[in-house]
Amino acid sequence: SIPLVCTYYWFAHDFGVVVRFNDWFNVYGHWYLQVFWCVLLTAMLLECFYLYQVYRYGRAELHPRASPRAFMLLLGVGLVFALVTHEFFKSAFGDPLFQLDPTLTMLAYPAFGAAMLLRRGSNRGQSTTMWACFTVMTAGFHLIAYRWFGPAFQTIYYVAAGTAATLGGLVMTLVVASPQWRWNGVDFDGRTVVVAR
């Protein structure tokens, strides 16, 4: 239900925080950064599960002609590229505390979620609940950052990015709820999927 590029990016971001344990607990030693580390450790473990789901269930959609081993290798290569790319751009941001990165991850989800919706031609794998929760989380994060994180989080660019991410989530909530995008129950191979109720 999460576009692969988002899972890659989120994993790269969260992994970058988790491996810098010494920074948060010894160099800076601030409670907020320590709690942030704990939260992102949990998120990184969830993203490992998401990557497993892509490996287990995504081959039919993403690369049906690949063998399971080749598909796993491709996923691994993509993950390495995501990690290297994230660290490259991270160094250019001048954001040692990883506080600007969450906005980029939140901007990515509506953009690539919409691309996945268009590619699939339906809301398969997406729900109004997940998009509504994303929208509330995004709005809440940016309001808190605007209020308490200081002048860097009150610029017109940051406000525009937070607003765009929140509105993107709201639009996806409404679009995914629309009957026009309802999944017809047909799998990627053309067979009808029987859903147990």
Secondary structure tally: strands: 0
**Which class do the helix and strand fractions yield?**
mainly alpha
- The biggest beta sheet, please? none
Look at the structure and give the mean pLDDT: 92
Task: Output the keywords.
197 residues, globular, single chain, mainly alpha
Provide a descriptive summary of the structure in words.
The chain has 197 residues and is an all-alpha fold. Helix content is 73%, strand content 0%. Helix 1 packs antiparallel against helix 3 and helix 2 packs antiparallel against helix 3. The longest helix is centred in the N-terminal third of the chain and has 27 residues.
Entry summary:
The chain is an all-alpha fold and 197 residues long.
Describe the secondary structure blueprint for this structure:
Elements: H1 4-18, H2 21-28, H3 31-57, H4 59-62, H5 68-93, H6 101-120, H7 128-148, H8 156-177
